[in-house]
Design a protein that fits this description.
Helices cover 33% and strands 23% of the residues. The chain is α/β, with parallel strands linked by helices. It folds into 2 domains: 176 residues, Rossmann fold (3-Layer(aba) Sandwich); 208 residues, Rossmann fold (3-Layer(aba) Sandwich), CATH 3.40.50. An 8-stranded mixed sheet has the order 12-11-8-13-16-17-19-20, with helices on both faces. It has a 5-stranded parallel sheet with strand order 2-1-3-4-5, with helices on both faces. Strands 6-7 form a two-stranded antiparallel sheet. α1 links the parallel β1 and β2. The chain binds cytidine-5'-triphosphate (CTP). Cytidine-5'-triphosphate binds next to α11 and β16. Cytidine-5'-triphosphate (CTP) binds next to α11 and β16.
Length: 402
């Protein structure tokens, strides 16, 4: 596949795998991409800028540069120029800087300025790759929508053997090609995603809610965005760090607010994904003042909340596709299928609370997906971003207008 006309910033950081970035540069250039290389200072210990400049046919950048007005701004221009910001290899140090907003060199400053998608290929020793701080930083970058090319297993520079080798340049090229190809998948499509929990107020300081973290919804929003969709998020209160400006983002609290925000845009949508854990009941009245403790019991009267997916399912137009979620603790398949038809979904994603590695606050999930036209698939326990890809693959298979 051709990368003709694609502009790629290739960041190279200090790792023994930096020698492979010469080969990667060659592959990208041969595919037709324009490649601008930015090296970190420590990458200079591993490969010379002359090699990379010759292969990329452009001067390699390491330092901030002044323009004619004397202002340092090349990182901003670079960030706007690129269609993809690829860093391969990326060291644990640069991962930590990206995850925490440090910008002490041209590469890290360009990362903060970049508006284009970011793809990173970590390379390090196996114990570094397993360290909780590294895992936390990668999860953080993942939640920003950055694509992580998992390190491969094999012999490492330390002489140890395990996971930590940078993905081979040929495989990185495949991922880059797929990235540009997938941007066409949902081009001109509008996608609504409800996510997170709702909070139903009891009084000015208390509410009823649930453990939904919004992680699955965020993974779906990022995956749809990477595939070219215009994504509209209606989110209950979540505490995840998300790059909200990638999306049309509306924050809501209660089921009522979520319903009116979703209803307002529903008719414009091609695809609606109902990933929110909406409270089924809300207190009948919200006490105007904080409820004071008394010696007797407290009884709350609860009334039924609006069922957002059900109501919007009633007004689903031909050509629109609705995706639901089900969380079940018993008769999982049966209950999920009943919801699929009752709420007029095209497909439903069943999370079972009984599966280990699946659930609200986790980074992983295990799902079963049922199509309204029949047929189902089951996933392994996998990262929520991988589950998002699987759900989207099933959405592509679902006939719309049913
Ligand atoms: N849903 C919704 N509005 C509600 C309740 C649920 O939009 N008030 C959506 C959820 O986002 C999900 C699907 O409906 O996509 C199923 O949610 P779930 O809580 O499993 O089902 P309920 O219909 O609430 O049934 P129950 O809680 O009795 O299992």
């Amino acid at each position: 596949m051709s990368l003709q006309g694609k502009r790629i910033i290739l960041g190279v950081t200090g790792s023994i795998a930096a020698y492979k970035s010469a080969h990667l540069t060659r592959l990208l250039i041969k595919s037709g991409a324009e490649v601008q290389i930015i090296m970190s200072a420590s990458a200079l210990d591993f490969i010379t800028p002359l090699t990379l400049a010759t292969l990329s046919k452009r001067p390699v950048l390491v330092q901030f540069q002044k323009d004619e007005t004397g202002v340092w701004n090349n990182h901003v221009e670079l960030g706007l120029w690129a269609d993809l910001f690829l860093v391969a290899p990326i060291s644990a140090n640069t991962i930590a800087k990206f995850a925490n907003g440090l910008c002490d060199n041209l590469l890290t400053a360009t990362y903060l300025s970049a508006r284009c998608p970011v793809m990173i290929a970590p390379a390090m020793d196996l114990d570094m790759y397993q360290h909780p701080s590294l895992i936390a930083n990668l999860n953080r970058l993942n939640s920003f929508g950055n694509m992580i090319l998992d390190a491969e297993s094999g012999e490492l520079a330390s002489g140890l053997s395990g996971q930590g080798r940078m993905m081979e340049p040929e495989n990185i090229l495949i991922r880059v090609n797929n990235f540009f190809k997938q941007k066409e998948d949902f081009k001109n499509k509008k996608v609504l995603i409800t996510m997170g929990p709702t909070q139903e107020a009891i009084d000015p300081v208390r509410f009823i809610s649930n453990h939904s973290s919004g992680k699955m919804g965020v993974a779906l929003a990022n995956a749809f965005k990477d595939k070219g969709a215009e994504v509209f998020v209606v989110s209950g209160p979540i505490s995840l760090e998300v790059e909200r400006n990638r999306f049309h983002w509306t924050d809501v609290r209660s089921a009522k607010e979520m319903y009116s925000a979703a209803l307002k845009i529903h008719s414009m949508m091609d695809i609606c994904v109902f990933a929110a854990a909406v409270a089924d009941y809300a207190p009948a009245e919200i006490a105007p003042e904080k409820i004071k403790k008394s010696d007797s019991e407290l009884t709350l009267k609860m009334v039924k909340n609006v069922d957002i997916a059900f109501e919007l399912g009633k007004i689903k137009k031909p050509g629109q596709l609705h995706v639901g979620f089900a969380l079940e603790t018993e008769n999982e398949a049966e209950n999920a299928k009943a919801k699929l038809y009752k709420k007029n979904f095209n497909l439903i994603v069943l999370n079972s609370m009984k599966e280990s590695g699946a659930g609200f606050q986790l980074d992983t999930n295990k799902v079963h997906i049922y199509q309204s036209i029949g047929g189902s698939i089951s996933s392994e326990v996998a990262d929520k971003s991988k589950i998002a890809e699987l759900i989207i693959d099933q959405i592509k298979l679902a006939p719309i207008g049913v």
